[in-house]
């Protein structure tokens, strides 16, 4: 019903998301009867009312339908259903008692740590003992010479060169999942789905690539062979377009 009402109103999911402050992936999920992203019944009812208001339908009717499909609203439940009336269970003394084995195990660990600490002091070299080979090597270095700085950490592997006459965009979900929508220069949809953690997608077009990222902080962006880093902040919805020859947003 929400999808039909939105289409009849001439609104896109992005427009509904902007007016209601409900994230794009959650709007998509609710329109598909998936409420797992809402964070519970309370938030699901709030999202339903907000979306219904945006597309011009009766939100209370939709909430009532939701409650009927998910066990009813909290007000409809009788008080006796909210109380645990089961008889109080008496501790069963026949169950094994793990307290003593746990105490023994803890004492054993403490004793092992103490042995390692005090035993290590007895093995320490005496004053004036021969230094280690590394210390000797360091002591033999010419006076005034400085220690070599540590080698820098290896950089990320270079990205393959992209064609100069096209725009090439690679998206990598490095630390979380993000909903991604990608369109080419003619407005044709190339991708519209979740990009799970560890997955990547690459898009190429002669004119431009337009993106909508539902969780910009989770998506690492490479454009025309250059690393642009995360597309935005965690949880931020970003709309961006890239063109040939320019690694920055068009």
Automatic annotation (TrEMBL):
- What region holds the Cytoskeleton protein RodZ-like C-terminal domain? 176-241
User: Region (Disordered): which ranges?
Assistant: 128-157
Question: Where is the chain membrane-spanning?
Answer: 98-118
Return the Pfam families for the record: HTH_25, RodZ_C
> Keywords assigned by UniProt?
Membrane, Transmembrane, Transmembrane helix
**Please, which domain of life does this record's source organism belong to?**
Bacteria
**Is Protease among the key words of this record?**
no
Checking InterPro entries in the record gives: Bact_Cytoskel_RodZ, Lambda_DNA-bd_dom_sf, RodZ-like_C
What name does the UniProt record give this protein? Answer: Helix-turn-helix domain-containing protein
